[in-house]
């Protein structure tokens, strides 16, 4: 009887926790994922490797790039918020997303100035600026100066690095 009671209590606790979590698979099994905690994370790659799906690990921790026109968000325009898929940090609102012909989801501004970090990237013989998550330091994509007004910036992101929640899904 005691065992059954414990099992019921654990199930209830699990369901309660899940109802407060985002629905994406990676977020549900990631203890560092939070859309409200702004504390910077210092988690090493060995730990992330155990938590993140392979493609997300390759992009976020090894700077891989998903193929253009293949990601799930490159042409979406539904109202909502884009969070870091690794840690849940709010990154972009849909109102800052614009149709770009580059094949990756593109935005002209972040939600907050410190939503992201910028690093010089001279790999592949190019001078680019890498964009990383301001909370977990994961690679998101690059920023270019050919975006639309008012900022004229183009945050060129990997879809796999983003976790989208539509406004219509908010409770
Ligand atoms: Fe992050």
UniProtKB/TrEMBL annotation:
Coiled-coil residue windows: none
InterPro entries for this protein: Met_Sox_Rdtase_MsrB, Met_Sox_Rdtase_MsrB_dom, Mss4-like_sf
Return the broad EC class.
Answer: oxidoreductase
Task: Give the highest taxon in the source lineage.
Answer: Bacteria
Outline the extent of the MsrB domain.
45-167
**Cofactors (names):** Zn(2+)
E.C. numbers? 1.8.4.12
Q: Which UniProt keywords apply?
A: Metal-binding, Oxidoreductase, Signal, Zinc
Per the UniProt record, one Pfam family is SelR
| Cellular component aspect of the GO annotation | cytoplasm
Q: Which residues form the signal peptide?
A: 1-19
The molecular function terms in GO held by this entry are: metal ion binding; peptide-methionine (R)-S-oxide reductase activity
What reaction(s) does this enzyme catalyze? L-methionyl-[protein] + [thioredoxin]-disulfide + H2O = L-methionyl-(R)-S-oxide-[protein] + [thioredoxin]-dithiol
Choose any GO biological process term that the UniProt entry carries and state it.
Answer: protein repair
What the record says about family reads: Belongs to the MsrB Met sulfoxide reductase family.
- What's the protein here called? peptide-methionine (R)-S-oxide reductase
Q: Which organism is it from?
A: Chitinophaga filiformis (Myxococcus filiformis)
């Amino acid at each position: 009887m005691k065992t059954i009671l414990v099992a019921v209590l654990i199930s209830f606790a699990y369901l309660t926790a899940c109802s407060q979590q985002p629905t994406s698979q990676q977020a549900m099994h990631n203890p560092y994922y939070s859309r409200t905690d702004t504390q910077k994370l210092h988690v090493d790659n060995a730990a992330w490797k155990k938590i993140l799906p392979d493609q997300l690990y390759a992009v976020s921790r090894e700077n891989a790039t998903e193929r253009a026109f293949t990601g799930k968000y490159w042409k979406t325009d539904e109202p909502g918020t884009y969070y870091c898929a690794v840690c849940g940090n709010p990154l972009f609102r849909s109102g800052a997303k614009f149709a770009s012909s580059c094949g990756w989801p593109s935005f002209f501004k972040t939600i907050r100035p410190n939503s992201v970090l910028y690093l010089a990237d001279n790999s592949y013989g190019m001078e680019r600026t890498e964009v990383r998550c301001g909370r977990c330091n994961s690679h998101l994509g690059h920023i270019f100066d050919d975006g639309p007004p008012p900022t004229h910036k183009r945050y060129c992101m990997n879809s796999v690095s983003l976790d989208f929640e539509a406004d219509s899904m908010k409770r």
